[in-house]
Amino acid sequence: MRNPICTPLPDPPGNAAVVRTEGFFTLYNGFVPALLLTTHGAVQFVVYEKMKEALSHETRHPETVKLAISSGAAVWVEWGNEVQGGAAMAMGVLSKIAASTVTYPEQVVKARLQQKGGKGERYSGMVDCFVKTWRAEGLRGFFRGIVPNTLRIAPSGAVVMGCYESVANLLRYVDKSERCRL
Fold first, then answer.
1. How sure is the predictor about 99, in pLDDT bands with cuts at 50, 70 and 90?
2. DSSP string computed for the chain
3. Model pTM greater than 0.70?
């Protein structure tokens, strides 16, 4: 007798089997909402830059600091224009949460289209999915699962924007030091 725990699973069907049984366009279920989700990054950066602008107006220092470089050149750095680590990470989390909240209904529709309707429900397309979700669940249906999603994506917002500001500050520093040598 075979051990049921060690029984190998059947191979998942490939694209050819899916096309044969469900049709060619099944491969593109959720394609349009996925395209709309590309706005997520744009929303995140706009929100981040607006927060950064508001912060820089609050913390702008009129004085500049002269830094000496080992080669003898000098660089002028305006500290008020740069966002440092902790602030960048906090604003990264907030901007990621804002972008995720704005685009979450599109994520729900995309997931439902790709799941073939979890409760035996089939959708003819994106608009049909929106309408059926609205009628059955209302606004709450478009935000089901947003709390675990927020907890999942928030750390990446901190890391991405922290790295983004670190690299941007480094490039500004290098650019200013190159100007001093010329």
1. very high
2. ---TTSPPPPPPP-HHHHHHHH-GGGGGTTHHHHHHTTHHHHHHHHHHHHHHHHHHHHH--S--EEEE-TTS-EEEE-GGG---HHHHHHHHHHHHHHHHHHHHHHHHHHHHHHTT-TTS---SSHHHHHHHHHHHHGGGGGGTTHHHHHHHHHHHHHHHHHHHHHHHHHHHHHHHHHHHH-
3. no
Report how far residue 69's alpha carbon sits from residue 179's, in angstroms, rounded to the nearest whole number: 13
What torsion, rounded to 10 degrees, do the Cα atoms 149, 155, 161, 166 define?
-170
What domains does the chain contain, in order, with CATH numbers?
A: 29-181 (1.50.40.10)
146-176 pLDDT tens trace: 999 999 999 999 999 988 888 888 888 887 7
